[in-house]
Amino acid sequence: MRTAYSVETVRTAERALMARLPDGVLMQRAAAGLAAACADLLGRVYGRRVVLLVGSGDNGGDTLYAGARLARRGAGVTAVLLAPDHTHPGGLAALRRTGGRVVRLGEHSGEEAGENTAARTGAAGELIDRADLVVDGIVGIGGKGGLRPDAAPLAERAARSGVAVVAVDLPSGVEADSGEVRGAAVRADLTVTFGTHKPGLLVDPAREYAGTVRLVDIGLGAELPAEPELEALQHADVAALLPLPAAESDKYRRGVVGIAAGSARYPGAAVLAVSGALRGGAGAVRYVGPAGQAVVARFPETLVSDQGPHKAGRVQAWVVGPGAGDDAATVAEVLDTGVPVLIDADGLRLADRDAVRARSAPTLMTPHAGEAAALLGVAREEVEGARLSSVRELAARYRATVLLKGSTTLVADPDGGPVRVNPTGTPWLATAGSGDVLSGLAGSLLAAGLSARDAGSVAAYLHGLAGRYAADGAPLGAHDVAEAIPEAWRDVRD
């Protein structure tokens, strides 16, 4: 499992570790890992031109020491100092001893300073244009609010030049704890992070700026608490949670899921939710709603009822809302049951918040950003820009587990604890009906006995893999995603 910790937790762990180590050892470990990652990206170090963008403090020190290591291997290394009076003295001396050059931001080469970006960056801009690699050591993990005006043109210049960019610990300008990007920021091809992942490396929009992330072990693990801020399941974690039938299993032991979905206008939502539940391993599916004929025509094994949820027969979990239109009565009836309930799509709009909060059985809500924004009373852009705080706030308000769909799907419990981040998402899942399939899939896992948190996390993981397999670089529909779920299941198990 991949885990991420807050800035304060990381700093506390670093202080504890440094108290037991000789002075400077931790920084040398970080610099060694950073230099190795840069060398791997360059392929050949000798004769390559490397530009270091160096801010103040330890982040700049890591960058300078790594630059010194590259210079010793024959790279031409130039450090651009953004805070000359606060540059790490030991790192700067090490770079100079190995023949590295130093340029202060604002020094000019062949032109005078002006209002255009090229002139404002001076010699630094020209160096970036000619570089084989730029190392971003401008701001450490405590940075807030985007890049300062003097640093932003350097990030712009690097992006325009197309040069490879390596970020030190975190791309400068993104916020480590929240994953928010509140101004100009560096876009990295590779981020080398130390000791542990930071939340912003796993959550969009910051994740998009990080590129590939490489974790360097500096010995911090023993100092970190058992409970992280974020966690991302991997194949082995998902495999351990998959509900597998035993020799004596029957449909009830495997889990019967009820689907209350669809309407005269949206019968397909019911079909797709049922498909997700069946492909997700449900022992049986009971369908309630006006799309019974369409469901049975596609999936004759479905048990169809027109008597409403309370008279549909025994179920171990309900899915309510996909394509439900304005059927508030059915949503209320499902919420009144004593089994786990997943609420999606129209059900999110129709569900009474007090009724959700009053439930004793688990509740899993699965909004996309637009639906979450409506429930929170904010603009969609606010949710997309602050995904982590939004999912936590929604879970607290409704006293329910919330799966916030999107570029990085997040799962949060109402009582706190680590937020789960799904690492398998793909833009190909942005297709009509894909969310209905996810609802059915998660509902089947709820019916099999998984907690709301585990059901949401495993469903998002399998759904993401299925989207990748079904698309394989080409357009797809929600039906294709459902059909690929068994392949994702087998891949995780194997």
Automatic annotation (TrEMBL):
The YjeF N-terminal domain sits at: 10-226
Catalysed reaction equations from the record? (6S)-NADPHX + ADP = AMP + phosphate + NADPH + H(+); (6R)-NADHX = (6S)-NADHX; (6R)-NADPHX = (6S)-NADPHX; (6S)-NADHX + ADP = AMP + phosphate + NADH + H(+)
Which InterPro entries does the annotation name?
CARKD, Nnr, Ribokinase-like, YjeF_N_dom, YjeF_N_dom_sf
Record note on cofactor: Binds 1 potassium ion per subunit.
Provide the binding site for AMP: K405, G406, S407, T408, T409, G435
Q: Which PROSITE patterns match?
A: YJEF_C_3, YJEF_N
- Might you give the EC number(s) for this enzyme? 4.2.1.136, 5.1.99.6
What range(s) does the YjeF C-terminal domain occupy?
Answer: 234-492
UniProt keywords, alphabetically: ATP-binding, Isomerase, Lyase, Metal-binding, Multifunctional enzyme, NAD, NADP, Nucleotide-binding, Potassium
Q: Which domain of life is it from?
A: Bacteria
Summarize where K(+) binds, as residue positions.
N59, D136, S172
Q: Where does (6S)-NADPHX bind?
A: 58-62, 140-146, 169, 269, 323, 368, 436
Q: Which cofactor does it need?
A: Mg(2+); K(+)
Stated role = Catalyzes the dehydration of the S-form of NAD(P)HX at the expense of ADP, which is converted to AMP. Together with NAD(P)HX epimerase, which catalyzes the epimerization of the S- and R-forms, the enzyme allows the repair of both epimers of NAD(P)HX, a damaged form of NAD(P)H that is a result of enzymatic or heat-dependent hydration. Bifunctional enzyme that catalyzes the epimerization of the S- and R-forms of NAD(P)HX and the dehydration of the S-form of NAD(P)HX at the expense of ADP, which is converted to AMP. This allows the repair of both epimers of NAD(P)HX, a damaged form of NAD(P)H that is a result of enzymatic or heat-dependent hydration.
PANTHER family of this UniProt entry?
A: ATP-DEPENDENT (S)-NAD(P)H-HYDRATE DEHYDRATASE (PTHR12592:SF0), ATP-DEPENDENT (S)-NAD(P)H-HYDRATE DEHYDRATASE FAMILY MEMBER (PTHR12592)
Q: How does it assemble?
A: Homotetramer.
Say which family it is in: Belongs to the NnrD/CARKD family. In the C-terminal section; belongs to the NnrD/CARKD family.
Q: What is this protein called?
A: Bifunctional NAD(P)H-hydrate repair enzyme
State which gene encodes it.
nnrE
